[in-house]
Design goal:
This protein is mainly alpha-helical and 69 residues long. It is built from five helices and two strands. This is Helix-turn-helix domain-containing protein. It comes from Nibribacter ruber.
């Protein structure tokens, strides 16, 4: 998929664990793990907003388009 999720990179920069982020954005560990590993097929804007707020970042810091050609 040409959309890469850099959630793990932002979590490392902010030194935040998946468990801590899960509590801050009120998502289950399994759903955050699916998003973190790039297995998610979609993400709600409300979820993206909560993650950006918790990690003090922009959506572009989390999601990246990579041209596969």
């Amino acid at each position: 998929m040409p959309i890469v999720v850099n959630l793990d990179v932002m979590m490392a920069k902010r030194k935040m664990s998946l468990n801590e982020l899960s509590q801050k954005v009120d998502l289950t560990l399994s759903n955050l793990s699916i998003l973190k590993t790039g297995k998610a097929k979609a993400v709600r804007f409300t979820t993206l907003e909560a993650i950006c707020k918790a990690l003090d970042c922009q959506p572009g810091d989390i999601l990246e388009y990579v041209n596969e050609s």
